[in-house]
Amino acid sequence: MKKNKIWIIGLFFTQFGCSNVERLDTTEVKEEMDGYKIKRVSPAQIIEQVEVLGSQIAVTLTKDFEKQMKEASQARTEEICALKNMQVIDSLEKKYNLKIRLLGQPDIGSNNSLYAKEKEVLEAYADNAMRKLPLSNNIQEIDHSVFVYTAPIGADKGVGKLCFSDDSGFAIWSIILNKAEVIKSIKPKK
Question: Whole-prediction pTM value?
Answer without folding.
Answer: 0.78
